[in-house]
Write a structure and sequence with these properties.
single chain; about 130 residues; mainly alpha; 2 domains; 6 helices
Length: about 130
């Protein structure tokens, strides 16, 4: 809980009381919904990756299993930290085009995987 001493501005006004007395606007609701959707997607992504662990054709230690599940979240955090300076340097449009190209290359590599049955059946059937 924030104490009154920390919540008070140098002008003597209490920031928390100011925020509590305001009527929520559409922008506040937008931010609240956006935060809820972000939390949902984080859990959904982690659950999907966790449910796919049964299909890994080799045994991983507990550390590497956790690292594999957390990899998407770690990658998202690293990408968010890197994207700000890159956007400032190159511009938003160039960075979005580059991201779309990387995504398209990954989709093509996934579509043309060799051998093709590995996409549908996994590598478990192919290992000795």
């Amino acid at each position: 809980m924030v104490s009154d001493a920390r919540a008070t501005r140098p002008s003597g006004r209490n920031v928390l009381e100011d925020l509590d007395s305001r009527i929520p606007t559409n922008f506040y609701w937008y931010l609240a919904v956006l935060a809820c959707v972000g939390g949902f997607l984080f859990g959904y992504d982690t659950a999907n990756i966790g449910s796919a662990l049964d299909f890994i054709p080799y045994h991983l230690s507990s550390f590497w299993t956790g690292y594999l599940v957390a990899g998407a979240s770690l990658g998202a955090a690293a990408g968010a930290l890197i994207a700000g300076p890159l956007t400032d340097h190159f511009g938003r449009k160039i960075l979005l085009i580059t991201d779309a190209a990387i995504y398209a290359i990954g989709a093509l590599l996934s579509a043309f995987t060799w051998p093709r049955p590995a996409v549908f059946h996994g590598w478990r059937d192919r290992l000795p």
